[in-house]
Amino acid sequence: MTVIPARCAPVLLAVVLLTAGCGLGAELDREADPERTGAHATAEPSSVPPRADRPAGLADTSRADPPAPTGAEGCPATGVKVTTGMVNVAMGLRAMPVTLTNCGTEDQRVEGYPDVRVRDVHRKPMDVTVLKGTGPIADLQDPGAHPVTLKPGESARSVFAWRYSAVDPATGRGSGVYVEIAPAPGVARQTVLPEGGLDVGETGLLGTTAWEKVTD
After folding, report:
1. Which is more confident, 152 or 43?
2. CA gap 110, 157 in Å, rounded
3. Euclidean distance between CA atoms 57 and 204, whole angstroms
4. Can the peptide bond before residue 66 be classed as cis, meaning omega within 30 degrees of 0?
5. Which one of 99, 102, 109, 131 has the largest count of C-beta atoms within 10 Å of its C-beta?
6. Could you state, in order of their start, the residue ranges of all structural domains in the chain?
7. CA 123 to chain centre
8. Secondary structure (3-state) at 132
C-alpha cells in the first residue's frame, strides 16, 4: 500500500472541527462548559516539558526514522510526508490533527487508519493502546476505513484524541515525545515531535480517526 504527506502549518481548532465534524466541537464544548453556563473554563496548561527538554539536535519537524532516502525538498522515498498540527485542549480532552501529504510525483492511495507507535523522551516505547476510532475517549465523527487517492500536492487527515494522564513535569515521564506514524501497517513510519508532546500517560489510550481527504 502506498502513502501520503502534508504541508507543515499550524492547524487551528477550526481545521480540526472541519476534519472531525461537529462531534469534536460539541465534545470540546461539553468539556469546557459541562454545566452549559455559557462561560468557557480555561483549559489546564499542558504539564509536558517544553521543546527545550527534548534531546539536543532534533528539530521540531517531521522526519523519517530511521533515516530514509529523500527526494526533492525533503520528500521521503515513500512519496508522502506526515505532519502534526496544534493540540487542542479542553479540561483534559486532547485532539490533534495529523496530515498526510503526497509530496511525490505520482498518485498515492491510502485506506484505513494510521499505524502509530509512541515513544517517551528517551525514545523507549510506551505502553499506549492505539485505537481505530475514538469511542472510549470522545464522541468524534469517524469516516471509517475507505479508499483515498491523493494526487501530488493533495492531503488526507486523521484526528488523534486522548485524555490527559499523569505526566511528571520535571522528567517528562508519561509524555509521548516521539510519535511514529505510518499511513498504514507495513509502510515505513515517520517520526514527528508534536508541540508539547502527547500527555497520554504511560498506559493511556490514543484514539484515531480514519484517513479522510482534505478538501478545504
Report:
1. 152
2. 11
3. 28
4. yes
5. 102
6. 13-213
7. 17
8. strand
Which residues are paired to 141 by β-bridges? none
Q: Greatest CA span in the chain, whole angstroms? A: 54
E strand segments, 61-123:
63-64, 80-84, 88-90, 93-102, 108-111, 115-119
Q: Could you confirm whether domain 13-213 is CATH 2.70.70.10?
A: no
Name the average pLDDT for the chain.
Answer: 77
Going by pLDDT thresholds of 50, 70 and 90, the confidence category of residue 6 is: very low
* 85: three-class secondary structure by DSSP: coil
pLDDT digits (tens, 9 = 90+) for 164-216: 998 988 888 999 999 999 999 999 999 999 998 999 998 899 999 999 999 97
Enter the pTM of the model. Answer: 0.70
Quickly tell me which residue has 506526515 as its cell. 82
Rounded Cα distance, 168 and 156, in Å: 34
